[in-house]
């Protein structure tokens, strides 16, 4: 029992460490980007309106070239952030060209709902297994032994094998 108590703080510490590292890793700024890097990053997040499943970065369609040129003009002007540039293009196409859903409003459910379902499912399984383990004493009753013997074709009244 003492060994189990000692392992819980270690697991909790490891879990907190993983969450902290993931948070730092996802929010860390990699430094100033060049205009070309910004244009590439933005066009990778926008789908080509005339192509099927391609980003503006990859596509060579006329519509994609036009969007790339607009992004380049907006980046060169330096008056908008990357998200503002993507937002203005998405507003032009009614948001149907975003490869990555917005993190606000109903679009945020695309990101949050699967994670919430996974967490609830894991928690539900944890509770169910704990309850099952607590209710399962592990001791076979005489009725259980007789049932097993009957199913195996042995004589249930034979007390020698019990």
Automatic annotation (TrEMBL):
GO terms for molecular function: metal ion binding. Residues 22-152 form the CcmH/CycL/Ccl2/NrfF N-terminal domain. Coiled coil: none annotated. Pfam families: CcmH (PF03918). One of its GO terms (cellular component) is plasma membrane. The chain crosses the membrane at residues 109-129. Keywords: Heme, Iron, Membrane, Metal-binding, Signal, Transmembrane, Transmembrane helix. Belongs to the CcmH/CycL/Ccl2/NrfF family. This is Unannotated protein. It comes from freshwater metagenome. The lineage of its organism: unclassified sequences, metagenomes, ecological metagenomes.
């Amino acid at each position: 029992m003492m060994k189990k108590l000692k392992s819980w703080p270690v697991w909790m510490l490891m879990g907190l460490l993983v969450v902290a590292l993931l948070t730092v890793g996802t929010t860390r700024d990699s430094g100033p980007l060049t205009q070309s890097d910004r244009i590439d990053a933005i066009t990778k997040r926008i789908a080509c309106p005339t192509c099927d499943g391609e980003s503006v970065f990859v596509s060579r369609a006329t519509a994609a070239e036009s969007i790339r040129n607009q992004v380049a003009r907006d980046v060169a002007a330096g008056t908008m952030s990357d998200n503002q540039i993507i937002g203005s293009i998405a507003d032009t196409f009614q948001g149907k060209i975003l490869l990555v859903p917005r993190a606000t409003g109903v679009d945020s459910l695309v990101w949050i709902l699967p994670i919430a379902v996974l967490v609830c499912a894991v928690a539900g399984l944890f509770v169910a297994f704990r309850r099952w383990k607590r209710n399962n004493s592990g001791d076979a009753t005489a009725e259980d032994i007789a049932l097993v013997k009957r199913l195996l074709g042995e004589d249930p009244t034979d007390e020698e094998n019990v």
